[in-house]
Amino acid sequence: MAFSPEAAFEFLRRAHEADRLAHAYLIAGEAGSGKRALALRLAALVAGMGEGGAGDPLKHPDVHFVEPESKSRIIKVEQTRELEKELQMRASQRGRKVAILFDADRMNPSASNSFLKTLEEPPNNSLLLLVSAHPEMLLETILSRCIPVQLAAPPRSEPGEGQRRLLDLVGRFLTKSKPGEADIGGVFVLVREFTRLLAEVKSEIQDESAAELKREEGLYKQTTDGKWLGEREDYYKALGEARYLQARTVYMATLLQWWGDVLRQQHGERGDGALDFPAYSAQTAKLAERFSTPDVLRRISALETLRENFGRNVQEQLAIEVAFLGAFGG
Fold it and tell me: Do 78 and 125 lie in a common domain?
């Protein structure tokens, strides 16, 4: 059952008041579902800040958290070990100690195994909250030790221009290719167009960042000694990279949703709201008849691997080529 954030909080609030909260919850949901806000709201309540407590829960002395760090976007074992040490300390105030793992699916194997021990023997007077958009990537042993709180998907919005370009590219390629034949040349054309789309997005973001920096320069160059300029250049460089990674994530999600629609069509889910891209339902319906469920799952797995590799320090172009051969070849 999927909850709205408000319904989920009410359920957890009642459990807290009855002193029946479990020691660990997995708050899962798509991007935009409100899972982070729910975790923070619950942390504030449990730590004694009150239901609508003022202030940032992450600054409360009894609320501890980890999230992916560095370019690799991975939670490392050093982070989970430090978290466990903090939980062993006595609560400084009247509430419980709370640990939050944002993007918990980004734990590397060592971190997962380390945190599993914390789940198996949770510190006294503590609450563990795992937050994830991809709970299927967590260890089964971790999943089995958490109470799942699944949030409903946010209302679906119409795909943007870049997403439509990508969906049109994929649709044309797959409907033109012949069943059972590996169109390797066609796959590499698809790779080329996908990387061209990414390059255009990156160029637009860089232009926007340069324009924003230029506006700041005009405002402040007459009133400062100029030292700020280097700092702001670094800031906009980092901001541009973050915007690019966000845009790339959207395109990756688009490809996964496309194959997800094929899978849903195979299982008869065709009603209102069932498909992510209803405008492309005729194409995904044909592919649902053409491919077997294991084949669709294999293709989804190839894209999931690409998304994981994007979170590591891998060569982007090579990672895309390998993944597209698995997702669209044969």
Answer: yes
